Amino acid sequence: MAGIFGFTAGHLVGYIGLRAAYCILMIIIAIAVGSLPWVATNNIAIYISAAVFGLGFILITAFLGMWSLRIFKWAPAMGFAMTFFLISLGQGLGPILIGFAIKFGMEMDVLFAFCGVFCAVLALILPPKANFCPIKARKLKKNVSVKYEIISE
Q1: d(CA 53, CA 60)
Q2: Degrees to nearest 5, angle at CA 26 with 4 and 105
């Protein structure tokens, strides 16, 4: 259900920039995941947390795709493919690592809190260095023409 709002990723980046959008959504994901131990007895709060996480995850995935196109200007298809490969790798390895942590005695409350803190720390120490904000740039440079680079083989 939250995936329906994935189309807003480009608009959000256009208005506030990639760096700010990434950091805000990583903090939102951190809160959604990290708060689960404290809202575990409230079904409505659990559903809200799941919806917020889903929306944040879909948007972050789109942001990473946009970011990869900026980083790998010389090979955008490769950058985009690597982005989704690494996301898939994380989706595969994450549950395995969490399963081992549970098997060896780590409590679920601690795991959710740790994952929330980890997301928040990632947002603060590893934000995208490339901060592009196309709509703001257009407003600031109204009379500047945009040039597109055509890559041919």
Answers
A1: 10
A2: 105
Question: Burial letters for 99-137: b for 16+ Cβ neighbours within 10 Å, e otherwise?
Answer: eeeeeeeeeeeebbbebbeebbebbeeebbeeeebeeee
Q: Are 69 and 80 in contact (CB under 8 A)?
A: yes
Look at residue 131 and give its three-state secondary structure. Answer: coil
With residue 151 as reference, give the H or E element that holds it: none
pLDDT in tens, 19-36: 888 888 999 999 999 999
pTM above 0.90, yes or no: no
Asked whether residue 1 carries a pLDDT value surpassing 80, the answer given is no
Residues 6+ positions from 128 with CB-CB distance below 8 Å? 18, 19, 22, 63, 67
DSSP 123: H
Q: How far apart are CA 138 and CA 46, in angstroms?
A: 41
Any idea what DSSP says for residue 129? S
Confidence of residue 7 (pLDDT cuts 50, 70, 90): confident
Do 133 and 17 meet the contact criterion of CB atoms below 8 Å apart? yes
